[in-house]
Each structure stands twice: as structure tokens, then as C-alpha cells.
Amino acid sequence: MMLAAFNAEPIHELKPRDKSKIESLLAYGDRLLVGLSSGVLRIYRVNELGAKKSVELLREEEKFSKKPVQQLAVVKEANLLVSLSDGSVALHDLQTFALAERLDVTRGATCFAVISSVVKDGETGVPSLVSRLAVGVKKKVLLWTWRDMELEDEVATVGIEAVAKSLTWITGSRLVVGLDPGFVLWQVESRQPTPIFKTGGESSGARFGAVNSSGMGYVAMVSWVPKPMATCLTENQILLAKDVNTLFIDTEGKALEKKQVPWASAPEAVGYSYPYLLALLSSERGTLQVRNPDTLSLLQSISVPGATILHVPQPNISLAHAGKGFLVASDRTIWRMNALPYDEQLHELINQRRFDEAISLLGLLEDTLIDDKQAMIREFKTLKAEDRFHQQQYRLALDLFTDAESPPARVIALYPRSVAGDLTTIHEVSDQSDAEPAAAGHECPHAEDEIASKEAPATPSKGVLSKLRVTASNGLRDPDSTSTRVASPARADSDTAGSRTPSVKPASKPLEGEDLKLAARCLTSFLAQARVKIKKFLSTEGTLKESQISMDPETGRPAFANLLPGSLFDDSSDLSGIDLGSELLKTAQLVDTTLFRAYMLASPSLAGPLFRLDNFCDPDVVRTSLYESDRYCDLIDFLHGKKLHRQALEVLAKFGKGEAEHADVIPENMKGPRRTVAYLKQLPPELVDLIIEFARWPLEEVAELGMEVFVDDSGYSEHLPRDKVLHLLKSMDEDLELKYLEHVTSEWNDQTPEFHQRLVDILIHKLKSQDQQSDTYPDVQIKLEAFLKESQQYNEKATLQQLPTDEPRFYESRAIVFGAMGKHKEALSIYVYSVKDYAKAEEYCNQTFLSQQQQRQQSTDGATINQQPTPVFGNAFASNKKGSQSNVFATLLGLYLKPSSGQEKRWPQALGLLSRHGARLPTSSTLELMPDDLAIADLQSYFIGRKRNVVSITREMEMVKALQGLQQINADRRLLIGPDATVEEGRRGGRDRRIRITEDDHCKLCHKRFGASAVRIYPDDTVVHYGCVGKKPSNIRYGWRRG
């Protein structure tokens, strides 16, 4: 079918008795001038469409010319009518048509061309209206110029190599001249014509339009040589035609890379009526072809019997001509070509399934001629993609959908339920209905109604868009339209593998088998790009990234409107009642869910990476699909990504305990509690109740593995609420509780008193409940005693009450607790009288003494340097003042020499203590403990130790004093002469530093001289007034001493 872009309306026909023939036409405004072969000029008024008479004869100039009027034109600004007759050009008054001037220099003229344009003066920039008349006279072109309605005196002339056969203005100052040898371009300013060459330029040596006369006789060559023609198509594209050959050039005369116009024979005339390329074919003598200048496709052939004249009123390439007709004439008839509205033309192209032509034509039209042009282009591309999809060209179709930015919902709806879900527009016929054609035949009308009711959401549209969408969609499903559908060619590439022959109604049957897999694979690339676009506007939480949605000023829609179903914008122009964020979220959910379905169908291995990332997949769809396909690992990953942790843990528990229906298909890595433990370790502390609930069965199965949930250092274990964890472990097993408390107090250094006390209670309880011969008893006892020594957070009194006083195995533990309470005498009594381990008693004293020394040292950190240093071994002559801390060594010595009732004195241990730690014992109290009958020789080691201690303290004080003297000397030296670096550089520093200020020096801040004012000198020798300190500007650079 052909497009009906124009309707041919015969508006005038010469009467039978009129022997004249029509030679030329000129239309301007509502006037039509007709030049006849008899030299008569007739003036008609052209009426609007629908009038009773199309034209009315206003006047007739019988003496206009003695010869046929071959060409007419108008210089409207100069109120002149230009005519070509009897080989010369004449100027007439446009109102009276009287002869104003006959241009004698134009005798022998073959053609002329007129143009008017606005030109700015090169110096002043003032615009002026310039009209030019170019006349081809033999082998030269003459040029007359009117500037602001005044004719210039100079007539420009340029020589050409042959007689001019056609003249065409392509700009206000550039003229294409058609010759038998070819075409030349004349730039008025240069006065030098330039030949026009084919693609490749002058270097190719091929001049376009050159005549090759080899093998032809003279007479044959003269009759055969076709007329060179040219016409402007757009502002920067010109068509040159000679015979059946064509060439497209720009305004510079350079050839454009464009194919030939496929004319079957040489055209009689060519022209351009916005936005179509026109041609009257000479061979058919009466056929007007209308072509798309972009695709060069034939859109319409109009029968105009005997037509030889094509006249398009100026301007023919601008919006001023949009929608207006043109004229075609034969010897006796004039036709007016009335243009149909552009929306109707586009609608007709879509009905004919000529989507490329519709898209191309829409691209040629200006935005002001079409409502929401961009939306219509997207709609046409979408319709083309749908057509290719139904032709099983899936890869091409999905690429077109992507290029058109089609709404995902509309594309997804083309797929069957297995991919599109409830959004599908395909009615899937059941096997039972296939087996019973009669029953299916009764249900068929209802099925069609259902298909129509599930029409895919459309893109945003205006005006004709809705009508185009409905008609095109119906065309895709109309059985009668299959005859116009181009059959898909045989394809051997991977994209078309598995193609099936289209049935009578391909859109009403679901895709199947390999064909469906191929279509699904193509769909994945489209949906992946849609996800990228959605992420620009939607956060991973499902909310818009921008709280304030910016609307397009032209369409009044958000930037992501193309992602939403077109039905949102079809019914209402007011978007205030639409939750755009919610609609975009729905689209994201649809895209991700469909992408998952497509992956599962065509490329199951790609489904896993999808839901391991942030996604909006429908959990029910994904869970059901993965579970039915036995992809349990992917199911767990998906549930974790969607934060459906309870459902994931329930599945893991079911599989880990072996309670699944088909235990044979459960992966090995999901059997047992290990996978559950790994999952629990990834959960945040906020889900502690869920963690505790599902951690119970791993602890019951494999306690050591289950404890990793609470003591692992790689996850969130350290941040879990410890009281809740302890409550769980306490209810299960005391050993698990003990392990957790040990980890909390030692590894995480938790100083909570309740945890420390609970750990002590458990250890004591285990010791009491175990036999001393048990293998684990020594380890527990060592743990208890070590913890009692290290911890300072447990309750000493409560602990002491739990330790039996009559069981030797708890003696040392009680001693440690007494020591923690500061009751050193009670602790030492246990070591001396109960345990009778004098080495431990002495070690206890040593550790306690060092701890006391460290405390005293910390308390004297703020003392001045002149104070006497604390002796390393203590003050041997210090007396026990009231309120001072008791000497633990003196306490132990008292237990040795003044035992309680029932105990004997321990002289050997006492003398050994005196010899090893005598310097740490107070002198007066130590000697008072010595009996009168004790030999002095036995105290020799004690006195030697005391003497050595005094000497050591004296020498230590001398060394400290000497070091302090060196420090004082260095400080004095730096104060007097400055740091060592300053001295090495040869500069004066310290108190020896000198700064010389002269009368020429001035302050850096106030820029005044110093005089006798007080000054401040900075370390880098910068000098300022003392009163200017604190007023340093930002541009001051210290280090410049002089101003």
C-alpha cells in the first residue's frame, strides 16, 4: 500500500476551444499566474479547499508576450514580475503586469532564478533585504541585485564553459548552475564558479553529470542529453539530478555520502515540498513520485496524466510551507496537491507497518508541528520493536526497545506467564482446549476479549499517540494483516537459533521451547539496562534519592517517566495525585522479578549473582522457583539479601536436621549445623532473639561448633547482648556458660562484676562437685586460682563465703581472696600454718610489696625534679607511722617469730627472710622481734644486706644529682647562646641574640617606623611594634626582617 500524503485536485482545465498550452506557473499568496504558449498571461485567484470554485479568473493579459511564456518568477520586494519569453528576460509591474523593462543583455537566455534573503552588513552589522536575479545567457550568467528595494547599477557577470540549462539558488549568495558537462557552484562574492565532483572530490577526476558521447551520433546525442536539475532539500542538503543519476551535496558543494535515488527513468522535473522529495518521471509522463528524502523510499505515486510542470511555491523548505500544497500542470490541466495532516500520514504509515518510514518522517518534521514529538518517536520505535518481536527477531526487537526507552512493563507483557507473570498479554491455551477444538471455538471470543483487556501499558503520549498505539496493536493481532507482514528470513546466527515458523496468530500463542529461551536471553539485556536506569533515581531502600522530584518543563513529567507505565499519564495531566516514588518502586520490583524469571529459564547460572546484590525481586516468586528447582544454596542467599532471616533459618534447620521431604537432593554443605552457624554469625546484634532461637539446635548437635556463634571474633559475636546469651547457655549446659564467660572476660576484657562473679561461682561449683582424682580437677583449680589473682571485679566476701574453711584444696584460693581484700595477715597465715608452703608465702609478700611500691610511685608522679627519688629497694630506716600501709614482710616475719597459740617459731624461715629481704623490713620493728639470746652471727647476712642497701641508695642519689647537673648545664647553654643548630649555622641565639633596627626599618603590620617604641621580635627575627601584636594580616610573611 502507498501513503496518501497528497491528494491531487484538478483546479483548472483549459477549455476545448482554447488552442493554447500551459507553459509556466507562478503561485504567490492567493494568486496563480499561468503563462501560455500563445504569450497570454492569465491571473487567477486560488480559493480555499471546499469552495465552489477552486480558482477564479481575475484578468487576462493577452499582449503580455508575443512568444510562449516559458518561466515566471516574482521579486516581491521590488514589486516586479520576471518572465522568460522568446529567449529574453523582461521585468513587469506586479500590480498592472505592464512591461517595466526588457533586459536586452539577456537575449539568448535559457533560464533564470530569483531569491530574496536578509543579509547583514559586514562592517555595521545592519540587516538589509537583498533580492537577486540570476539569468543564464549562453556561456555566462548575469546577476542583478536589489538591496532594500533599490536596484544596484552593477550587473555581475561570470563565464561558464557551456550553456546554462538550469539555475538553482541554494543560499542567498550561492548558485548551482546545471550544464551539459556537469554542475558548477558559483559563489557571488568570489565571481569564480567551481565544478562539482562526485564522492572523492577533484582527486577522483569524476565530475558529476558529465556526458559521455562515445558510440553516439550527433543527432542522437542532442536528443538524448537530459536536462540537469537541482533542488534544495534542507538548509544544508541539495539534490543534483541528471538522467537517473543523483548526487547529494552540501552548501559548500562537497558530495555527501548518500545512495542514489532509485528512479527507473530520468525525471522530467524535481522539487521539494516540505518534507518530501518530488519528481515527475519523463518515461511514464504523468506520474508524480513522492519520496522520503532521508530513506529515499517511494511513499506515494500520483497519476497526473501528461504532467510536465512541477511548481512548488517559495519558501519550500521551511515551516512557512509546512502542510501547504504545490502545483503540477500538463499542457491543459493544473492540479493542486493538497497535503494531508501529518498525524494522519503518520497514522497511515503505522497501519501499513512502515515503521522506519514513520520514524524517519517524524525526524524530518519540526517539533512545533507535532505534539510531544519525542514521545511519538519512542512510541513508533516501540511499535516497530513489537512487530519485530512477533516476527521472532528477538535480538533486534529488544535492542529497539532499549533504544526507544520503552517502559519495561510494556516489553515484559509480550512474554508468556512463565516470564511475565500476571502481566502477560498472551492467552495460554490449555492442553484440554487444544484437544477439544469445538469447545475452544466457543471460548475464542472471550479469549480475544481477555487479550484486549490485558493490553500492555503504553508510553506517554499526546494527541494521536493513543490512537496510533491501539491501531498498531490491533494490527499486530489481526489475522488479515499477516499478508502484509514480511516473512522473517532464514537465519543461522546464534540469536535466531530455534526460531519457529510464525503461525496465523503468533501473538496469541505463548512462546515455547528453545524459542522462549532465546527470547528470554534477549530480554535479560534489556532488563539489565533498565535496572541501571532505575538505580539512578531509586535507593536500595526503595525510596527516591531526591526528595523533591524535578519535572521536565516541556512535558511536565519526571526524568524517569519512561520507566513507568504509560497509562499513568494517559488519563490525567495532573500528577499531584500520583505517588511517583511508589510507582517507580513497583517498576523496580517488576524488572527484578522478571529478570530473575528470565535467568532461571535461559541462564540459571546468572540468577545467583542477581539476588546476591541489592534487588527488588518478589520474595514469593523467587522462593517458590528456587525451592522447586532444588537450588537451595541460592535460596538461602536470596533470603539473606532480602533480610528474610527467619525463613532462611527455618530452611537451614529443616535441611540441617534432615527433615526435608527429599533428603537425597540436599547439598552436603547444608547437612548438619555448620551452615546454620555460618548464617547466624552474619546476623547483626539487633536480631539477638532470632539468633538465640535458632542457635539452640546447633548447640545441642555440636556444642563446640554452635559456640562459634557467640565467641567468634570475625562476626557480630562481640556485640551481642551478653546477658541474653548467658541466659541461653545457662539453660543448656554449665560448661558452655563457663566457656563463654572465660572468653568474655579474657578475650574481650569485659569488666562487668556480674560476669566475673558468675565465672567464680561456676568454677567453685565445679571444684566442689568433682573428685580431686578427676582428670579435669587440676585444670579447674588452676583456672580458679589464676582468675582470683587477675580479676578485681568479683565480690570477695561472697566468694569467701563459698570457699570451705576446712578443706585443704581451697586453702590457697582463700588466701588469694584474703589478699584481694587487703587482709595480708590472714592470707599469710594460710600459707604458713595451713599450707606450710613458705616459698609461696614469700612470693606473696614479694608481689604485694612490688604492687605497693608501684602505687606509691604513681602517686608521686606530680612531684618536682628536685625531690629525692624513691629508692628502688625502699627506705630501710622508715618507721611504721600510724595510718601508714603495713609492711607485708614484717607481717610474715611476725608470723614466723611470734606465732599464734599452738604453733612453734620458725627460725630458719625467719633468718632466710631476713637475709633475702632484710632491706625491705623496717629496722625498729624487725630488731624488736629478735630474742635476746639470738647470736649476732646469725644476723650477719641481715646486716650485710642492710648495709648494701644504704650504699646503693646513696650512690643512686649521687648519680641522679650528677645527671640533673648536666641537664641544668645544657639548659643554661641553650638559654645563653641558643640551640646547637643555631650555633652550627654561625647565628646568634638565646640571650646572645641581637637584632639591629635602623631608621629605614618599619613595622610589617602598621608600616610605620619603629623610632623609640617597644617592639616584639619573633623567633624568625621578624620585628613588629609591641602594640601591633595580634593584628597580623593574612598576607604577612614572617621571615622578612626589613621593610
From TrEMBL:
This is CNH domain-containing protein. Belongs to the VAM6/VPS39 family. Keywords: Membrane. The lineage of its organism: Eukaryota, Fungi, Dikarya, Ascomycota, Pezizomycotina. Residues 443-453 have a biased composition (Basic and acidic residues). Residues 19-317 form the CNH domain. It holds the Pfam family zf-Vps39_C. Its main location: membrane. It comes from Piedraia hortae CBS 480.64. Signal peptide: none annotated. Residues 432-510 are annotated as: Disordered. It is found in: Endomembrane system. PROSITE patterns: CNH (PS50219). It comes from the Eukaryota. Coiled coil: none annotated. It is a peripheral membrane protein. GO terms for biological process: autophagy; endosomal vesicle fusion. GO terms for cellular component: endomembrane system; fungal-type vacuole membrane. InterPro entries: CNH_dom, Vam6/VPS39/TRAP1, VPS39/TGF_beta_rcpt-assoc_1, VPS39/TGFA1_Znf, WD40/YVTN_repeat-like_dom_sf, WD40_repeat_dom_sf.
